[in-house]
Amino acid sequence: MDKTQSKIQSKTKAALWMAGWLSLMLVMAVAGREATRELNVFQIMEVRSLLGFLFLLPMISRGGGFHALRTKRLPLHAARNLIHYGAQLGWFFALTLIPIGQVVAIEFTMPIWTAILAASLLGERMTVSKATAIVLGIIGVVIIVRPATGEINPGQLIALAAAVGFGVSMALVKSLTRTESALSVIFWMTVVQATAGLLPTLYLWTWPSAVVWGWTVVIAICGTFSHYCLASAMRHADATVVVPMDFLRVPLTATAGWLIYSERLDVFTVLGAALILAGNLLNLRATSAPPAPAKA
User: Fold this and answer.
1) Does a structural domain hold residue 276?
2) Is residue 295 part of a domain?
3) I need a surface site. Which of 136, 170, 189, 266 has the fewest CB within 10 A?
């Protein structure tokens, strides 16, 4: 009885942490749309990186200081974070071109590219469930973008390129976490991305209004602490419980776009998003299934 109650309590805590993740990611999408009204994406990313570095200082202090963050894999850190930086720039830029619900729907193709790269670069096995998820995801993207109509929005291609970049970044993170701590990965992310964006930011700098300064601070807070919420949710429940909750980001973001910006998602975007999410869920369940017992 106690074990059952503990499991229920664990799922409840995971759901609460995921509510925090969903809320922060939703707010960041809106904040990104508002901030890009006055600021270029380089400025937004630079402020996010610098503030994120400040947010990490207490964790660095508790984790043994900067000495504990020394690494022998700096080239891989640099490569991963430059790719992630470009993908994040594309994500913010896509928010200015297409509905935010559509950006998030296309973003969910990231596991497709991660699976392909993990199989080719890291030697992970390509299973039937992974292959099926890839096929469903690609079909979903084609339905959303609809290249046969000849009316492809550049924002859709930018969002897709960002998703591919996130997938490459995730595959490289899998490699890094074999030897590096989570704090080290996040620390070098802020350092590399702040360095990469410094010169473009100084060249393009314009002083934003007080309101937009507020939005950039919101982006930095959401971008930093949303991942803490996700990690905390993972500690309280299995991935099969936590990850499907993230799929709520698609309808929630689409609803926010409708309520705040009067954006409408057509039936093709809804169908494409459903196929992408179905592929992800199929792969997630297959990955978490226990292996079949060996026959005598």
Assistant:
1) yes
2) no
3) 266
Tokens of 171: 């595959």
Residue with the bigger pLDDT between 213 and 283: it is 213
State the pLDDT at residue 296: 37
Whether residue 294 is contained in a domain is answered as no
pLDDT tens across 142-152, in order? 787 776 556 66
Q: Retrieve residue 44's tokens.
A: 């937004």
Q: How far apart, in whole angstroms, are the C-alpha atoms of residue 234 and residue 110?
A: 19
CA–CA distance, 296 with 288 (Å, rounded to integer)? 24
Tokens 């690609």 -> residue: 138
Q: What is the pTM for the complete model shown? A: 0.75
Residue 208: predicted pLDDT = 84
Domain that holds residue 81: 2-288
Residue 268 has pLDDT above 60, yes or no: yes
Structure confidence by residue, pLDDT tens digits, 156-165 = 899 989 988 9
Q: How far is CA 157 from CA 128, 146, 147, 173, in A?
A: 28, 11, 10, 24
Question: How many angstroms separate the CA atoms of 155 and 96, rounded?
Answer: 8
Cα Rg of the chain, angstroms: 20
